[in-house]
Specification:
With 273 residues, the chain is α/β, with parallel strands linked by helices. The chain is built from 13 helices and eight strands. The chain has a single domain, classed as Rossmann fold (3-Layer(aba) Sandwich). An eight-stranded mixed sheet has the order 3-4-2-5-1-6-7-8, with helices on both faces. The structure holds adenosine-5'-diphosphate and magnesium ion.
Length: 273
């Protein structure tokens, strides 16, 4: 089973779009996928057409109460299940403040769920208790980056957080890769940011095993209006616009992500300097 958290404490970089469409693409490939929405904004849930009625259980009840993931998850496709979020989750940060072991609640609850090939966690734009729960639960972190000025701002802090969690709570945790989202091909800025990120990763590679395998995915998600429209129809890009560039890009990314030998075939990044 692969477990992956989509994390960047910056908002609007493509975390939710990537979580939803990666999960949907892998499900279309026949994998059994569980998508867990860890953002109180519940955008991933809405993106897949889930709006909760008063009293419906959500990830909030899993993290702060007795509910199991099995009780909360909904099937949205033949092999795709979603654990929806709710705005109540915004209070979890405070409610869990005094709780012993609050960083590992999700990890423990997930132990009852054995029947998936892939679990994808869509994280909120912060490094608080919800993201910490994601980091203690998964083996891989996927970092979406929007190639613009300041793209790397905050990444060092995220790497430090991943390192601390790996050392203290989850030794299997690794940063697996960077995905460029909203990529404007042909612009000089995009090309420059890609080069900066690749250099940055190459520099980091020697310093710590937690991110020594990290690489930039070859697939880049181009800016595509269909990707921005799909959420309001409650559909993945594959349902909403299956022949759009957005669908093509996410399908290609899912194939790259799923390739079992990708770590061996990864392009070696040039040494920095
Ligand atoms: P995050 O979860 O990191 O906050 P989102 O995935 O919600 O980011 O993306 C932010 C906004 O940009 C959303 O309105 C989304 O629909 C839009 N968007 C994401 N990826 C693309 C893309 N490749 N092309 C065009 N719009 C995109
Ligand atoms: Mg989001």
């Amino acid at each position: 089973m692969r477990t992956i958290a989509v994390i960047n404490q910056k908002g609007g970089v493509g975390k939710t779009t990537t979580s939803v469409n990666l999960a949907a693409a892998l499900a279309e490939m026949g994998q059994r996928v569980l998508l867990i929405d860890l953002d109180p904004q519940a955008h991933a849930s809405l993106h897949l057409g889930l709006t909760l009625e008063e009293g419906d259980p959500s990830i909030y009840d899993v993290l702060t109460g007795e509910a199991t993931l099995g009780e909360v998850r909904r099937r949205v496709h033949e092999t795709l299940w979603v654990v929806p979020s709710h705005i109540d989750l915004a209070a979890a940060e405070i409610e869990l403040a005094g709780e012993v072991g609050r960083e590992v609640i999700l990890r423990d609850k997930l132990q009852e769920e054995g029947e998936f090939d892939v679990i994808v966690l869509d994280c909120p734009p912060s490094l608080g208790i919800l993201t910490l729960n994601a980091l203690t639960t998964v083996e891989e972190v996927l970092l979406p980056i929007q190639p613009h000025f300041l793209a790397l701002h905050g990444v060092a802090k995220l790497l430090r957080t991943i390192d601390v969690v790996a050392q203290r709570l989850n030794p299997r945790l690794r940063l697996s890769g960077v995905l460029f989202c909203m990529y404007d091909s042909g612009t000089r800025l995009a090309a420059e940011v890609v080069r900066d990120v690749e250099e940055f990763l190459a520099e980091q590679a020697t310093s710590n095993p937690v991110w020594s395998q990290a690489h930039a995915y070859r697939t880049r998600i181009r800016r595509n209006i269909r990707l921005a429209e799909a959420p309001s129809f409650g559909q993945s890009i594959f349902e909403y616009a299956p022949s759009s560039n957005g669908a093509v890009d996410y399908q290609q990314f899912a194939a790259e992500f799923a390739r079992p030998t990708s770590s061996k075939r990864r392009r070696r990044l040039p040494a920095a300097g």
